[in-house]
Amino acid sequence: MGTGLSMDQGNLWSKFKAGDKSAFESVYNLCIDEMYAYGLKLDTDRELVKDCIQEVFIDIYEHRNAIAEPHNIKFYILKALKHSIFKKRKKERKKTKFHEQPGLSVSAGQNFEDRRILSELDEEKKRLINEALDTLSAKQKEIMYLRFTVGLSYDEISEIVKIDHSSVRKQVYRAVKKLRNSRAFDDYKGIILFYSMLRAF
Prior knowledge:
mainly alpha, 68% helix
């Protein structure tokens, strides 16, 4: 996954750089849902996230001629959003130590894609999933989200979370191994619930 620009995306970016407003709208529509979801996993302040999203789009539009064609548009924009959120938080916490890696928000009960299947899951299953997720570090949760929900490559994740490629692979391996050892994953419903909770915000 995260295989880079298709010909259509490459063409889209070229039109965007040329100032095509419909291309800008297409780039926005391509990224906005995942930007908002990912932003809320980095910071729960919805207004701050919205401001940062707006800043990212204003910045790339204003500097579009100086930006090289990205290998992957979503990767480029999610990375820019993370940088914008951390930068804004640093400004707001001038006298407070800034924690660069806030925990991802992982909550059950919202934004499930298949409510009919998930409604069949009992409270015990949900409790087990939450316990399993709580065993992951904030960094592991972020990596799992970027890998399995957004679909970024290990190299792209490495750049965003600022750890080397092999460490990203190890983190995914350890997280998956840890989760597989949980009783929550003894059937397909647990797996469905896990990925839904990873997407939820």
